[in-house]
Design brief:
alpha/beta; TIM Barrel; 8-stranded parallel beta barrel; 8 strands; 15% strand; binds 2-phosphoglycolic acid
Length: 251
């Protein structure tokens, strides 16, 4: 793991209401001292980013967005939220290029990179998601697809995070084997090293896709896994704290 501080991020997707923000307070209570050794992040839906950031201003929990506009400057872009706006209300991270956006909104690598760069320009750390579909894995194209996504989607410079999320593992009950996870994480780091040299050793690479309290512990032991991006199991403090406390750095 080297000097990379683990990051465990929760992606609430389009779930939750104002009342569910109480889960974030409960999470802060439960994780206790582990929060000094692990960066813990919650990415609620856009309308809840501001209240969540306000609620956690004196707590060791970071708040992020789930997406941002590729436009760095204020612009006539109805419905979009800029990274600068996320930063303004207290967000420090933003997920970009999640497979649900790549698929449902036809987001290209190029657009994802523009979003990541807009985030960097606003001082917000982008979490750039990559990952193959089931068909691509079956066709033996994992290295090609993930390599292409990494090269095309990460910003030209600066500190960013990459999340490896095999599309077929999201929202289900199946995950790659630990060896498969290690293999793709190594491939991502190698690709980053080709672009950024030794600096690639500082980039945190998260695993995401059906991470829960039962499998997180073993996934965290995989070489090159610097944390997780968690969907479903991040909605309830009980589940998410069990994942965080299951990280070897938590003890
Ligand atoms: P999941 O989602 O943990 O519910 O599989 C992960 C993600 O899509 O980020």
């Amino acid at each position: 793991m080297g000097s990379r501080k683990p990051l465990i991020a929760g992606n609430w997707k389009m779930f939750g209401r104002g009342a569910d923000l109480a889960e974030i307070g409960a999470l802060a209570e439960t994780i206790g001292a582990a929060a000094s050794k692990i960066d813990v992040l919650i990415c609620p839906p856009a309308v809840f980013v501001a209240p969540a950031a306000w609620q956690t201003r004196d707590k060791p929990i970071l708040i992020g967005g789930q997406d941002c506009s590729p436009n760095a400057a204020d612009a006539a872009r109805t419905g979009e939220v800029s990274a600068a706006m996320l930063a303004d209300v207290g967000a420090t991270y933003v997920i970009v290029g999640h497979s649900e956006r790549r698929q449902n909104h036809k987001e290209s690598d190029d657009l994802v990179r523009q979003k990541a760069e807009a985030a960097m320009a606003a001082g917000v750390t982008p979490i750039v998601c990559v990952g193959e579909t089931q068909a691509e894995r079956a066709a033996g194209q994992v290295a090609e697809v993930v390599g292409r996504q990494v090269k095309g989607s990460v910003p030209a410079q600066g500190a960013f995070v990459v999340a490896y999320e095999p599309v077929w593992a999201i929202g289900g009950n199946s995950t790659p084997t630990l060896a498969e996870i290690a293999e793709v994480h190594a491939l991502i780091r190698e690709t980053l090293a080709g672009q950024f040299g030794a600096q690639a050793n500082e980039t945190r690479i998260l695993y995401g896709g059906s991470v829960g309290p039962k499998n997180a512990g073993e996934i965290f032991t995989v070489e090159g896994v610097d944390g997780a991006l968690v969907g479903r199991a991040s909605l309830k403090a009980a589940d998410f704290s069990a994942i965080i406390l299951g990280h070897p750095a938590a003890v």
